[in-house]
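ok trying this again, last paste got cut off
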Amino acid sequence: MDTTVVAADGSTSVTPATVPRSPEVDCFYIYPTVDQLPNPLLQTGNSPPMPTDAQTATLLVQAAPLLSRCRMFAPVYRQVPSVAAIVTPPTLEGGTVVGHQTGIGDIEQAWDDYWTHDNIDPATGQRRGVLILGHSQGAGIAAALIRARVDTDPDVRTHLIAAMILGGHVTPSSFRTISGCARTSASAPIPTGCVLAFHTFPAGQSSPLGIGEICTNPAALLAGRPEDTELPLDTQFQARGLVRNAADYPTGFVRYPTQVTGHCEQGKLVVTGAPEILGTSQPEIGLHGKEFGIAQGSLMMFAGQQIDAWLAHNA
């Protein structure tokens, strides 16, 4: 889980991973589409889905850096497979395609179990703060979960540190009480209980995806600048030490602290960087599969600040 840091001049260094024994808050992570083929028996049967290597690898790629700050809960759910989930994603009202409602139900059941049995700290007897994370299909289901279990319940909402809903469809009217994260200046307090959301596209690529949706520029949040300000994003992707067909470094991750920049434009996080870093963009969906990595360092830094702010307020 160590990281190779690649500087702008090409020089490298290694940052070792740190995982504390007793993180003070929790993360509730909903993975994106990993099921490639339909499985009607699994979708309709009563047998619970079983964890797979693909789900574990995706969790590590997207959310492992947060293991240094939170206990990770990652429920398995029955999902719509492959491309169908991208073309017709789940809506906040419960799903537009057969199968999404099943997955939403699985995650709601997992959340209820977590909230009843795991959220209460065994040492203090108090409820813990929680970050809700989701990407792609998992983003739509995360949004549905927040709407059903968090948005209108003030007791639960008090313990929401933030939600990262990336590659989903989150608009300013998606929730009744929870809004997008924003800061007006560098001296403004760190916002908590809010949502970070965006779709990612390379500069010059147009698509209706993202228009009218919330766009969070993590670098702008850190700097206290407007979302449309072009700023360096701390980019971090998996390396070959973690998964195959990745950048050729022996560590689990490779980080480019300043080589990618981004700004919000028409609901999209528009990014500029070398093709060898960003990889190939897809028609209509842009850099959809890489949304966590494009700004992972910036996201994790801001999430850390949100955790600190929540803990200070709820000490």
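PB: full thing came through this time. The chain has a mean pLDDT of 88.
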